[in-house]
Design a protein that fits this description.
Elements: H1 10-72, E1 81-86, H2 89-92, H3 96-109, H4 118-123, H5 125-133, E2 136-139, E3 142-153, E4 156-165
Parallel strand pairs: 1-4
Antiparallel strand pairs: 2-3, 3-4
Helix pairs in contact: 1-3
């Protein structure tokens, strides 16, 4: 049996070349779509992990705080959560993942404030500010120094921070 030499016909050559180019384009489109989807999954995963660690830290601190309050038989207002706002993230052109990592790092630095009495934290607010400003945060190969612009002490400790590159 003889197999006809299709590779010599111009129409078959165009068909095979089109198939090859189409396969390459399909592969590039697939890799782009997969990359975008995977990036979304990573961002969502980091956000959920952040919420979980915040919830665990809040639960642990509030549980300890409630034990102390039960022993004292007095109920005073305590700090139940921490919010960090980075003021100049657009100017530094930071990725949302890096911003979230900065917020987590700063929260971990001052997570002992959760469960503390508001009056006690307001008396020692300079310690909170110094603990943030005296640390160099190294993320993604860059070192940043934080400067606290505003500190709001209510049941939610809200801190507005400006970042600058450290020397």
């Amino acid at each position: 049996m003889h197999i006809p030499p299709y590779y010599k016909k111009e129409s078959w050559q165009r068909f095979l070349a089109g198939t090859f180019v189409g396969a390459i384009i399909a592969f590039v489109v697939f890799m782009y779509m997969y990359g975008q989807l995977y990036e979304g999954w990573v961002e969502e995963n980091l956000e959920l992990r952040s919420q979980l660690s915040d919830s665990k830290a809040k639960y642990k601190a509030l549980e300890e705080s409630n034990k102390e309050l039960d022993q004292r038989y007095q109920k005073q207002a305590t700090i139940s959560s921490i919010k960090i706002h980075i003021s100049n993230s657009e100017q530094l052109d930071l990725d949302p993942l890096i911003i979230r990592e900065f917020e987590e790092t700063i929260k971990n630095e001052i997570e002992d404030a959760i469960g503390q009495e508001i009056e006690r934290i307001s008396e020692s607010y300079s310690f909170v500010i110094r603990s943030i400003e005296n640390k160099v945060f190294s993320i993604d190969g860059f070192a940043y120094q934080a400067k606290v612009d505003h500190l709001f002490i209510t049941e939610t400790l809200e801190i507005h921070v400006t970042l600058k590159l450290a020397n």
